[in-house]
Write a structure and sequence with these properties.
The complex is a heterodimer of chains A (about 130) and B (about 150). Chain A is mainly beta. Chain A contains 1 helix and 13 strands. In chain A, strand 10 and strand 11 form a beta hairpin. Classes of the chains: A mainly beta (about 130), B alpha+beta (about 150).
Chain lengths: ~130, ~150
């Protein structure tokens, strides 16, 4: 029988590789979007948003965001100036959800769910 | 001697796996048919030859539309709506996004470390970045429209 010389080290590396290949899924809550239009804002300063999965997503400065509707958690805005995705075990396109000038989470248009961020994040915006 | 022979065979297999034929995107972009007016286009491409032997099917809403071939690209024209791109090796990875009529989406097929086999997954990238990265990729598809 062949016994590895450093069994604990090999096991540790195997566990690290296994864990790094299994990211947690994005937290999602069911929600309902009431379509809306007519409002927009420009983000004047970039915002880096930390996700509960350990990944982050960056909203770039000078991007224009158009209202697409409202959910119970806030107003939903979409931009055509950049791609916004949320990464965990899978990757989802997201629209930002804003309440009283702060980012409170993301609306996932395909899943039709809300994904909250931990602690709302104030946004620097102008009309 | 035996080790040398094995090394040559493995190297040949790797090189075969890396060799992607077909015209480059930059060479065929002007002659590629445009998507119909009521449809959008999704480009899929894989820039890295890392894990070249791992080439899973790429499924778009459950339908196989191509393979994740290193340095290759293909596209699919679809009606506006919601889409899910799925790739599977030892785990299944999914990407979800919306597509509008006339919109062009770029999905880069990345590879990350897995336990036994690398994980190939789709990532939605900005149009400007997608156009830049896809330029040197070679066509591996047939162009699919439902």
């Amino acid at each position: 029988m062949i016994v590895p010389r450093y069994p604990f080290r090999i096991l540790t590396v195997a566990v690290v590789v296994l864990l790094s290949s299994c990211a947690p899924t994005i937290v999602q809550e069911p929600t309902q979007l009431a379509a809306g239009t007519g409002k927009s804002f420009r983000l004047t300063r970039a915002a880096e948003v930390r996700l509960s999965t350990g990944y982050s997503t960056t909203l770039r400065a000078n991007t224009r965001w158009e209202l697409v509707g409202t959910i119970s958690q806030g107003e939903v805005y979409r931009t055509r100036d950049q791609v916004v995705t949320l990464e965990g075990a899978h990757i989802h396109e997201g629209y930002v959800v804003v309440k009283q000038g702060a980012l409170v989470g993301f609306y996932l248009p395909v899943e039709r769910t809300f994904s909250p961020v931990t602690g709302s994040q104030p946004l620097s915006v102008e009309p | 001697m035996k080790i040398r022979s094995v090394a040559i065979v493995v190297a040949s297999m790797l090189l075969c796996a890396c060799a992607t034929s077909g015209p480059k995107f930059s060479e065929m972009a002007s002659s590629m048919p445009a998507a119909k007016t009521d449809m959008g286009r999704i480009y899929f491409y894989r820039t890295t030859a890392l894990g070249a032997a791992v080439q899973p099917d790429v499924r778009l809403n459950g339908e196989v539309v191509g393979k994740a071939v290193p340095n290759g690209f293909f596209y699919a024209d679809r009606a506006a709506g919601n889409y899910q791109v799925a790739t599977e090796t030892e785990v299944e990875r999914k990407l979800t996004f919306t597509l509008d009529s006339g919109q062009v989406r770029y999905v880069r097929l990345n590879i990350s470390m897995g336990f036994f086999v690398g994980h190939v997954y789709g990532e939605l990238v900005d149009e400007a970045k997608g156009r830049e990265e896809i330029a040197d990729m070679r066509y591996t598809g047939t162009g699919t429209t439902p």
